[in-house]
UniProtKB/TrEMBL annotation, chain A:
Residues 56-200 form the Yip1 domain. Keywords: Endoplasmic reticulum, ER-Golgi transport, Golgi apparatus, Membrane, Protein transport, Transmembrane, Transmembrane helix, Transport. Interacts with the COPII coat components Sec23 (SEC23A and/or SEC23B) and Sec24 (SEC24A and/or SEC24B). Interacts with YIF1A. May interact with RAB1A. Interacts with YIPF3 and YIPF4. The chain crosses the membrane at residues 73-91, 97-116, 123-147, 153-173, 185-202. It comes from Galeopterus variegatus. Belongs to the YIP1 family. This is Protein YIPF. PANTHER family: GOLGI MEMBRANE PROTEIN YIP1 (PTHR21236), PROTEIN YIPF5 (PTHR21236:SF6). It comes from the Eukaryota. It holds the Pfam family Yip1. It is a multi-pass membrane protein.
TrEMBL record, chain B:
Its main location: endoplasmic reticulum. Belongs to the YIF1 family. It comes from Galeopterus variegatus (Malayan flying lemur). This is Protein YIF1. The chain crosses the membrane at residues 139-161, 167-192, 204-224, 230-249, 270-288.
Length: 203, 293
């Protein structure tokens, strides 16, 4: 069994004693300065987040199918919180509704996209795309803080923003999953989901 | 990413890769540390150091590994149970749609009187998917129509100032119960009439879900044009839907080899189809009249 019996010296957690310098240092070294930065370790990459946000904000720009390869939920979380915060500014404390609806909506879209596409899709990817495309809705709810959206202009603005969100989301889904001829079919459930969010901000 | 293994079982595996003959570490881990020469303690050491630094507790790593294995086991179990009840491939057939099919099918649901050929096309005894055959049933339209109906009911009640989130759930569950009961009644009728057909449960679900399109149109017309508009739209969509159901089910219920079976059985099938069709307007009226006052 054991090669040599050594008495227990009680020095397990003494790294300075056990560590002997070797030429090949491991990548994440064992001193405080050599550790990777916190954001890199957490997987939050601000450049990617910014690129994905720009893709969402330009509805006419052709989406690259590979941008959704790494599913990043940090951006969508920030956007959901920002949406709830703008609703709070308007006096509506409805964080629970926002989270509940987004959870149910993501689950429904996940089931639908898995049934409609040839290749499957992971839940993280669906949640990430739907969260990023929530950004124009934040614009709508910040409008609702200042102006009331219940007039004709409000209805037109709401319809426009819903169309913008669902168009971007369906564009990213189509390019990431290589579904052809189904963009309107994917855009319609997204429009229903964002319509519910718009209902929360308007009424 | 450096995988930080802990002591105990995982630690021994890590060290087994690094050194040719590592001692088992369950008995005396300090012996394993100080007895080996050269670079051997180093990977173990900075593993130890990193674990100590990041988690400070070797048991947490074991717990994490155990938890992730439990999670993947649970996911496999859920997949297995789901595949036992619902065949995902058969379900995928009903969702293989594209925009042109959906547009034409919606037009057909509103105005079916000029459509000539109602046969479902087969290729080598396998029905063609909805992308390639307009007469094939699909489940995308019924699902979207159901969800749109529930949201529209919520909005209609909100306009009448009778909205609350519980009412939305009530509408949704009422409509769902009616769909389930209708599908069960149709299945029972098909079983009693001993019809040998290709109509699976999903087919019946699709055909009974098409009425939600008519319901949405009636409610929208009622909201825009008042009670008269609602009754006109109700009459139009009911008759269109009845015609659609009768023409579709008459050919679909018979299967690929039609004109089979004795005459009384065919008459029974015809009565069944007519009964199902006549039931539709009643359901449409029952589920929508309280939204348009």
């Amino acid at each position: 069994m054991m090669q040599s019996q050594q008495p227990y010296t009680g020095q397990i957690f003494q790294p300075t004693q056990a560590y002997t310098p070797v030429t090949s240092q491991p990548l994440y070294g064992n001193s405080f300065e050599d550790e990777p930065p916190l954001l890199e370790e957490l997987g939050i990459n601000f450049d990617h987040i910014w690129q994905k946000t720009l893709t969402v904000l330009h509805p006419l720009k052709v989406a690259d199918g590979s941008i959704m390869n790494e599913t990043d939920l940090a951006g969508p979380m920030v956007f959901c919180l920002a949406f709830g915060a703008t609703l709070l500014l308007a006096g509506k404390i409805q964080f629970g509704y926002v989270y509940g609806i987004s959870a149910i909506g993501c689950l429904g879209m996940f089931c639908l996209l898995n049934l409609m596409s040839m290749t499957g899709v992971s839940f993280g990817c669906v949640a990430s795309v739907l969260g990023y495309c929530l950004l124009p809705m934040i614009l709508l709810s910040s409008f609702a803080v200042i102006f009331s959206l219940q007039g004709m202009i409000g209805i037109i603005l709401t319809a426009g923003i819903i169309g913008w969100c669902s168009f971007s989301a369906s564009k990213i889904f189509i390019s990431a999953l290589a579904m052809e001829g189904q963009q309107l079919l994917v855009a319609y459930p997204c429009a229903l989901l964002y319509g519910v969010f718009a209902l929360i901000s308007v009424f | 990413m450096a995988y930080h293994s802990g002591y105990g079982a995982h630690g021994s595996k890590h060290r087994a890769r690094a050194a040719p003959d590592p001692p088992p570490l369950f008995d005396d881990t300090s012996g394993g540390y100080s007895s080996q020469p050269g670079g051997y303690p180093a990977p173990g050491a900075d593993v130890a150091f990193n674990v100590n630094h990041l988690l400070g507790d070797p048991m947490a790593n074991v717990a994490m590994a155990y938890g992730s294995s439990i999670a993947s086991h649970g996911k496999d179990m859920v997949h297995k149970e789901l595949h036992r009840f619902v065949s995902v491939n058969k379900l995928k057939y009903f969702f293989a749609v594209d925009t042109a099919y959906v547009a034409k099918k919606l037009g057909l649901l509103v105005f079916p009187y000029t459509h000539q050929n109602w046969e479902v096309q087969y290729s080598r005894d396998v029905p063609l998917p909805p992308r390639q055959d307009l007469n094939a049933p699909d489940l995308y339209i019924p699902t979207m129509a159901f969800i749109t109906y529930v949201l529209l009911a919520g909005m209609a009640l909100g306009i009448q100032k009778r909205f609350s989130p519980e009412v939305l759930g009530l509408c949704a569950s009422t409509a769902l119960v009616w769909v389930v009961m209708e599908v069960l009644a149709l299945l029972l009728g098909l079983y009693l009439a001993t019809v040998r057909s290709d109509l699976s449960t999903f087919h019946l679900l699709a055909y009974s879900g098409y009425k939600y399109v008519g319901m949405i149109l009636s409610v929208l017309t009622g909201l825009l044009f008042g009670s008269d508009g609602y009754y006109v739209a109700l009459a139009w969509t009911s008759s269109a839907l009845m015609y659609f159901i009768v023409r579709s089910l008459r050919t679909a219920a018979l299967g690929p080899d039609s004109m089979g079976g004795p005459v009384p059985r065919q008459r029974l099938q015809l009565y069944l189809t007519l009964g199902a069709a006549a039931f539709q307007p009643l359901i449409i009226y029952w589920l929508t009249f309280h939204l348009v006052r």
